[in-house]
Amino acid sequence: MMLVVLNLPLIGVRIRLLAIPMPTLYAGILVLAAMGTVAANHSAVELAILVAFGFIGFFMRGNGYPVAPAVVGLIPGPTADAQLRRRLQMSLSEPMILLENPGSATVLGIAALAQVVPLILKGLNRFQMQED
Question: What is 26-95 written as a DSSP string?
C-alpha cells in the first residue's frame, strides 16, 4: 500500500522522463553513476573500474551479448565472494564442504548446467544444420 501511495503522485514525473532523448538520459546516468562512485569512496581506482565496465557493457551491447546477466552478477558478486572465502576458511580450504549442503549443491548444479546447456544446444543446432 505504501508503494501505491508514494508512486501515484509521481506518475506524471515518470511519464515526462520518457520524453527525454536517449543521449541526454545516458549522459545523466553516467554523471550520477560517477558522482555516486566518488561520493561512496574517494577512489580514482573505483572510478576507473566504473569506466572500464562501461566500455565492457558498450562492447557487449554492440556485439549482441546480453548485458543484464553481467549487471546481475556484479551486484551480489563481492558479497558472494566474501561468503565463499569465509566458508572455505571455516572448512580449512576443503571445497567439498560446498557440496554437503543441499542448497549450495543445487545452486552449483544449476550454475554448471547454465554453462554447459547452451554449448550443447549450439552443437545440436550445428549438427542439424549439417544434416539438412
Answer: HHHHHHHHHHHHHHH---HHHHHHHHHHHHHHHHHHHTT--SHHHHHHHTTHHHHHHHHHHHHHHTTS-T
Cell triple for 9: 503522485
17-67 pLDDT per residue, tens: 888 898 898 888 889 989 998 898 888 898 898 889 888 888 888 888 888
C-alpha cell at 27: 549522459
| CA distance readout (Å), 130 to 1, 57, 81, 113 | 57, 34, 43, 25
**Per-residue burial over 86-125, b = 16 or more CB atoms within 10 Å of its CB, e = otherwise:** eeeeeeeeeeeeeeeeeeeeeeeeeeeeeeeeeeeeeeee
In whole angstroms, give the CA distance from residue 54 to residue 60. Answer: 10
Alpha-carbon distance 98 to 115, whole Å? 18
**C-alpha cell of residue 45:** 581506482
